[in-house]
Amino acid sequence: MPSDIRLRYLYESARLGTMRAASEELDVATSSVSRQIAELEAELGLALIERGRRKIKLTEAGEASCQYYREKLSQEEAFLSKIKEFKSIRTGKIILAVGEAYVTQRFSDMLQEFMQSYPGMEVQVEVANTSSVVALVREDDAHIGLIFDIPRDPKIHARLVLPQPLMVIVNARHTFSGKRSIDLSQLTGESIGLPEKAYRIRQIIHIAEQEEGVFLEPSLLTNSLTLITDFVKSGRGIAILPELVVHHQLATGDLVALPTTSGILNSTKTSLITRAGRQLPVGAYRLLLSIEAHLKSEIPSCE
Predict the structure, then answer these.
(1) What is the pLDDT of residues 77-115, one digit of tens each?
(2) DSSP state of 260
(3) Fewer beta carbons below 10 Å: N end or C end of the chain?
(4) What is d(CA 108, CA 294) in angstroms, rounded to the nearest whole number?
(5) Residue ending a domain, choose from 87, 113, 148
(6) Are 225 and 247 contacting, i.e. CB atoms less than 8 angstroms apart?
(7) Residues 120, 250: Cα–Cα separation, whole Å
């Protein structure tokens, strides 16, 4: 195969127009450029430049040689870029901020799979309410955020938005379990577990209450969605939650999710967010893709 040095001397001479210009660019003597091109021609057994011209004019063989060199440079650049990418995702730190609703077994399994693929990568997960997650992403204190809402901050970009309605969650033995849908007025007087006001879920429920003139008095008020799930599973009451929080219990048949007639509760979304304009490190971007695929598998119908 022809020498890279000789190919480069030919390429630079053709690109700059003269061997003198190439010699200045390469910081070598003009005679050295001329000699290397002559040796390349001898090696290939073909003329690469047309003689008797002040400016370099390539023959067809010269054009092919330069094209080969350009492609070789391009392949080398792509290869080195890929190697750099592989190195950059072997170590480093990714900060992910999520609402508690997303801390499920399936989500944990997805994270574990990612960390097994990139064992040198540290993943820090911050569990917080929606406003705190948005703030962490906006201030670059988290690379990625996952929230139960559509972001209303111009500095936040929604990478993915999926429908995630709030459902009435009941024990399989509850009298509501056979219903096709529930009106919020039917929940008045029911023993109900609700998250605290800092939760976006509770804020949306409150808006729906106001819209329909209904007041829901919680029997259990907590900052733990796990406690609410156990509350419903035990048969002590009901809850209003997204299905993903109780996915396992729905799959086993312990709990039942019932849609409501509330337009507000039916229009809620899940959003995967980043700061607008931020270019994520390769590792964080790979995790973003993993979360995106996970959400699409959990919630197939997306906007």
Answers:
(1) 878 877 777 666 666 789 999 998 899 889 999 999 999
(2) B
(3) N
(4) 11
(5) 87
(6) no
(7) 36
